[in-house]
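Sequence in, structure out.
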Amino acid sequence: MGRTRAQDHPEPLARLVRFEAADGLELPGLLYEPRRATQRVAVFLHGTGGASVFDSRRTNLLAREFLARGIAYFAFNNRGAHVVRKMGLGSAHERIRDCVHEIDGALRELRRRGYRDITLIGHSTGANKIAVYDHYKPRNSARRYVLLAGGDDTGLMYAQLGARRFHAALAKARAMIKEKRGDEYVPRELSPVLLTWRSFYDTANPDGDYNVFPFLEAMRGVRLSRRGRFRYVKAIRKPTLLLYGENDEYCYDDVRGCVAVLADAIGARTNFELGIVEGADHGFKGCEGELVSIVDAWMA
């Protein structure tokens, strides 16, 4: 049900949009608009690790599903798109708090184009970014959030490196940043993907903005952060839908356990809904139609 194949329908038409983030950085995006004018738009925030909405098969698939329901769709590349584009840009250099400038710029551009009913949809690190954005800009023009497969990158780094190497790497990152060498790259034995010491510290720091979904800490009783767990998620007051794929490969082989931990952290707050999409992996590949059906029904 709801499964989509690229060859089933012609590719949807899109407009290339270039807009400025709030700090002046120019970013590119694709705006898909239904034939009938609407004020409703879904804004997609991609994950990290070299992601790009222009390279992803999922961009057209999701756009087609939203257009079929009369909803415009805007997917844009943030400054962390690709691994390295130039100094300071690309996921190797990215710091998550920069998302505040990017999302502000995207929302401003869409409002300029007449959109008033805006849904922010973040996938993987994009979900983390929505929580970070809400923390710093809770009074924003988005009406609701959809957080897809929010990730525990801090915990995954800890699990990959082990306690001793993890804490040693954090100390080394702090020292490199203090010595103004934070833009040098970490050795590959610390990170399989290219990262600067500054970006590595941003991701691995348990007390930093990145640590939005500390599943490993909660599930394995490991205390990494001195701050409250899931603090950014619990502070959200807008209607929020959180979804995970049944076979998400980044949930420590226990998707239901992660969702249960998240549900326990949220508690009785009525602005949240949580769900698991059967048969879906981390990227919801092959489940795009079902995913958008769930989101559309929830939005209604």
